[in-house]
Design a protein that fits this description.
By secondary structure, this protein is an all-beta fold. The chain is built from two helices and 44 strands.
Length: 761
C-alpha cells in the first residue's frame, strides 16, 4: 500500500545502483581517449567563425534541415541546455525557452503539465491526459509521471507547435516535445559534468561510450542530482525541512550494427526520485489583490502535515531498422513502468480555526492533508514504420499500438490526530488500448514548390472503475463501485506547401487537425460521481517564413497561426467542493504569432531572440463552474439561474500567457587553445490565470527569470570551468494556487548560484 512508504525529510537516500554508475563514470574520466566532443552522437560539421551551423530535426520522422520543414519548430542544444540545466533543475526549466511554451506543476518535480499555444490541461489526477505529447527516444510517454524523466546526455530537444495528428497522433492536438538521447557510436569517448551550488545542490552528469567490437557499441549515461531542504517548518510537525530532493537516473544503450542494412538499438533507463512534493503556502495572497502578504518569507512555512515524494521509473525500448534497396523499415517497441507517491499539506498551514489556539498563518477553515499514489502502472507501445528512400516522391506508412493499465490511490490524512493517521482511501483503475494507421507523402511539384500531406486513423478505448474504501469525514461511508468506459475513433491529418523563394528563403502554409481521445476522472475520495469528457478536435492554420541571412550569419523563422478547438476537454479544478470535474467547452479559439531569430552580431557575439503572442478564448455561453471556496474576488459574471456558479465564456485558457519571450547572448574571447565566454539568458512570460474562472487573487503576475554564466574553455574545448547564477534578480512569483480552503499559493524557485566543471575524454 502506498501509505506504508517511508517518510522523507530534507536529504533522502541515493540509490546504490546510481552510486555504482557514478563510480564507473568517474573511473572512465581518467582514461585517455583521443576523441572530439563527447556529448554528440555524431560529429557535427564545424561551422566557420560567425556562421550558424545547420540544425537537423526529425519532426517529420526523417532527418531534415529545420529550414525546410513547413511547420513551427524550435530546437534546443549545446550552450542553451548547459546554461538552463546548470542548477539541477527539472523539465520545467524549458518554460518560455521557446515560443508559446509554458510548463508548470502542482506536484513539484514529478508531474509536469505542458501548454503549447495556450492548450494544456491543469488536471492533477494521475490518469490525466494532456494535449501536448512528450516523445522520448521515439517512445510516447503518456502518463504525466513519465513526462518528468530527467534531461541529460541529449543530442537535442525539439518543440513542435500545432497539431501533430499524422506522424505522432497520440494526444497531440497542441503539439509535441521530442527528446533525443545521444546514441552509442563506434568511438571511445566519455564526459563528466559536475556542479555544486547554493543549498548544497549537487549535480553530476556523465556518459561513457565504448565500442565492444566492430558490431556492438554501448553508451552508459547518468545524472545524479541532490539538494538540501531550504524551506524551514516553523511549527512542530512530521516534516522539518522542505524542497530537498535526490533525483537519480541512468540510461544504458546498446547498438548492434552487423551490417549497413540492419541495426538494433536497445535502451534501458531508470529514475529514482525521493524528496519533497510541492510546497503549498497558506494565506500568502493579500485579499483583493495578487500581491504577497506583507513580510512573506519564501524560506518559511507552518506545517502540521507530512510532505514527501517518491518516484521509481523503469523502462526500455528496442529500435530495429532494416535498410532495403528502396525502403527502410523501422520497428519501435517500448515498455514503461512507473510507481509514485506524493503527499502534501494541502492547506499549507498549521491547525484550524476551530482548534484551541486557532490556526497559523491566518484563517484555515479546516485541515487538508492528502496523497496520490500510482502503485501499479504499465505502458506497452509498438510502432512499425516503412518509408521510401532516394529522390523523387517520399512516402511513409505506419502502424501504432498502445496498451496501458494503471491503478491510482487517493488518500486523506487527519493532521490533527497524533501520527497523522489515514482517514480516507479511494482507488481507481483504468485500462486504455488504442491503435492507429498513418501515412504521409512529400513531393516536389515543381523545382520551387513542395507539397506534403498526411492522414491518420485512430481508435481509442478506455475501461475505468473507482471505489471509495475508507470514507473521510463528512463523506458517505460506502457508495458502491462506479464504472464507465469510452470508445472513439477519428481521422486527422495535415497538408502543407513550401515555396522556395531563393536558395536561403522558404515560405510555407500548413493546415492541420488533431484529436484527443475521451478522458475519465473519478476522484471518489470527496465526490460521488465519475466525469467523462468527450473527444476534442482541433483545426489549425499556419503560415510562415524561414530564411538564412547574411551568408548564414543570421537565421529567422516567423509565423502566424489560428486554431479552433471543438469540445475542448477542460478541468474544473478545486473550487468550493475540492473536486476535479471534466467538462467540454463547445469551442475554444486561439491565434497569434511566433518568432525565432539567431544572429552573429560579430564573429564572437551570438544573439538569439524568440517570442510569441497567444490570444486564447473560451466560447461557450452555457458553460458555468463553481469558483473558489477560499475567499477570493471572482471577476466573472454569476450564471443566470444557477446559484453559486459563474460563466467562463470569453475567458482565456488557464496557464496560457499572452506573451512569451526569450533572449540569450553569448560573447567569447578566443585565446590560444580555448576561450573565455559569458552567456546570459532571459525568459519572460506575461500574467496567467491559474483556473478557468478569473479572480484577482488567483492571477499570476508576469515572471522574468534571468541567468548568467561566466566560463573558460581550454585544450580545444575538452575542459570547461564556469560559475553561474539562475534567477539572478530573485524575482519571486506565485505560479499556482489551491482555491478550496484558504488563499494558498506556490512559487517559482529563488535565486541560485554555483560552480561547474566539464571534461571530455
Amino acid at each position: 500500500m502506498s501509505s506504508n512508504k517511508r517518510a522523507v525529510q530534507s536529504t533522502p537516500r541515493v540509490s546504490r545502483l546510481s552510486f555504482s554508475i557514478a563510480a564507473a563514470l568517474s573511473a572512465a574520466t581518467v582514461l585517455s581517449f583521443n576523441i572530439a566532443h563527447a556529448q554528440n552522437a555524431k560529429p557535427a560539421e564545424k561551422a566557420k567563425a560567425g556562421e550558424l551551423e545547420t540544425i537537423t530535426v526529425t519532426a517529420e520522422r526523417r532527418a531534415e534541415n529545420i529550414q525546410d520543414v513547413p511547420s513551427s519548430i524550435s530546437a534546443l542544444k549545446g550552450d542553451t541546455l548547459d546554461a538552463i540545466n546548470s542548477g539541477g533543475q527539472d523539465i520545467r526549466m524549458l518554460a518560455a525557452r521557446v515560443p508559446s511554451l509554458n510548463i508548470e506543476s502542482s506536484f513539484g518535480r514529478a508531474f509536469p503539465r505542458f501548454y503549447i499555444r495556450g492548450l494544456g490541461n491543469g488536471d492533477f489526477d494521475l490518469n490525466a491526459s494532456q494535449p501536448v505529447s512528450l516523445v522520448y527516444d521515439d517512445v510516447v510517454q503518456e502518463n504525466p509521471i513519465l513526462k518528468g524523466f530527467p534531461i541529460f546526455d541529449l543530442e537535442q530537444i525539439e518543440v513542435l507547435r500545432g497539431p501533430q495528428g499524422t506522424l505522432f497522433g497520440r494526444n497531440s492536438p497542441a503539439g509535441v516535445i521530442k527528446f533525443e538521447s545521444a546514441k552509442p557510436r563506434f568511438a571511445n569517448e566519455a564526459y563528466v559534468n559536475i556542479s555544486h551550488g547554493k543549498y548544497n545542490t549537487s549535480n553530476l552528469e556523465g556518459a561513457l561510450n565504448l565500442p565492444l567490437n566492430k558490431e556492438v557499441a554501448i553508451r552508459l549515461s547518468t545524472q545524479l542530482q541532490g539538494r538540501d531542504g531550504w524551506v524551514i517548518n516553523q511549527r512542530p510537525g512530521p516534516t522539518g525541512r522542505l524542497e530537498g530532493y535526490r533525483d537519480n537516473a541512468f540510461r544504458l544503450q546498446t547498438l548492434y550494427k552487423p551490417s549497413d542494412s540492419f541495426s538494433a538499438l536497445f535502451n534501458f533507463h531508470n529514475r529514482d526520485l525521493s524528496g519533497s512534493a510541492r510546497v503549498f503556502r497558506a494565506n500568502i495572497i493579500k485579499p483583493g489583490t495578487n500581491d504577497f502578504v506583507a513580510n512573506f518569507d519564501p524560506s518559511k512555512v507552518f506545517y502540521d502535515g507530512r510532505n514527501q515524494q517518491d518516484v521509481t521509473n523503469n523502462g526500455g525500448s528496442m529500435r530495429l531498422k532494416w535498410e532495403f534497396a528502396n525502403t527502410t523499415l523501422h520497428s519501435i517497441t517500448g515498455l514503461e513502468k512507473v510507481t509514485s507517491f506524493s503527499r502534501g499539506d494541502i492547506d499549507g498551514g498549521f491547525s484550524a480555526v476551530f482548534m484551541p489556539g486557532g490556526s497559523t498563518p491566518g484563517v484555515i477553515p479546516f485541515t487538508a492533508e492528502s496523497a496520490d499514489g500510482l502503485p501499479n502502472h504499465r505502458q506497452l507501445t509498438q510502432e512499425f514504420r516503412l518509408e521510401s528512400k532516394g529522390k523523387g516522391m517520399k512516402w511513409l506508412v505506419g502502424l501504432y499500438y498502445f496498451d496501458e493499465e494503471i491503478d491510482i490511490d487517493s488518500i486523506n490524512y487527519d493532521s490533527l490526530a497524533p501520527g497523522n493517521p489515514r482517514n480516507g482511501f479511494a482507488k481507481q483503475n483504468q485500462k486504455n488500448k488504442a491503435y492507429a494507421v498513418f501515412g504521409s507523402v512529400n513531393t516536389d511539384l515543381t523545382s520551387a514548390f513542395n507539397l506534403r500531406a498526411g492522414v491518420r486513423y485512430t481508435n481509442d478505448k478506455k475501461d475505468f472503475y473507482a471505489d471509495r474504501l475508507i470514507a473521510p469525514p463528512f463523506s458517505p461511508t460506502f457508495i458502491g463501485r462506479r464504472t464507465t468506459n469510452t470508445s472513439a475513433s477519428n481521422v486527422s491529418g495535415d497538408v502543407a506547401g513550401t515555396l522556395k523563394l531563393s536558395a536561403d528563403t522558404n515560405v510555407y502554409a500548413r493546415v492541420a487537425t488533431g484529436f484527443r481521445a475521451p478522458s475519465i476522472q473519478g476522484r471518489l475520495l470527496f465526490g460521488d460521481q465519475l466525469s467523462v469528457a468527450n473527444s476534442e478536435k482541433v483545426t489549425s492554420v499556419e503560415a510562415g517564413i524561414k530564411t538564412d541571412l547574411f551568408n548564414k550569419r543570421a537565421r529567422l523563422a516567423a509565423n502566424v497561426f489560428s486554431y479552433e478547438v471543438k469540445d475542448q476537454q477542460i478541468t474544473a479544478v478545486g473550487g468550493a467542493t475540492n473536486f476535479n470535474r471534466l467538462l467540454n467547452a463547445a469551442k475554444t479559439s486561439g491565434s497569434g504569432a511566433e518568432l525565432d531569430l539567431q544572429a552573429y552580431l560579430t564573429d564572437t557575439l551570438l544573439l538569439t531572440v524568440s517570442g510569441s503572442l497567444n490570444d486564447t478564448k473560451i466560447k461557450d455561453g452555457s458553460l458555468a463552474i463553481q469558483a473558489c471556496g477560499a475567499p477570493c474576488t471572482v471577476l466573472d459574471p454569476a450564471a443566470v439561474g444557477r446559484p453559486g456558479t459563474f460563466s467562463i465564456n470569453g475567458n482565456p485558457l488557464p496557464q496560457a500567457p499572452k506573451y512569451v519571450a526569450n533572449v540569450t547572448l553569448r560573447y567569447s574571447i578566443p585565446v590560444a587553445g580555448g576561450e573565455y565566454f559569458v552567456y546570459t539568458d532571459m525568459a519572460y512570460r506575461s500574467k496567467i490565470n491559474f483556473f478557468l474562472y478569473e479572480s484577482r487573487e488567483y492571477t499570476g503576475k508576469a515572471l522574468t527569470e534571468t541567468g548568467l554564466r561566466f566560463g573558460y574553455k581550454w585544450a580545444d574545448g575538452k575542459y570547461e570551468a564556469a560559475i553561474y547564477g539562475r534567477n539572478i534578480t530573485n524575482q519571486i512569483r506565485m505560479v499556482g494556487g489551491i482555491d478550496f480552503n484558504n488563499l494558498t499559493g506556490f512559487i517559482n524557485e529563488p535565486r541560485f548560484w554555483g560552480a561547474q566543471f566539464k571534461a571530455n575524454f
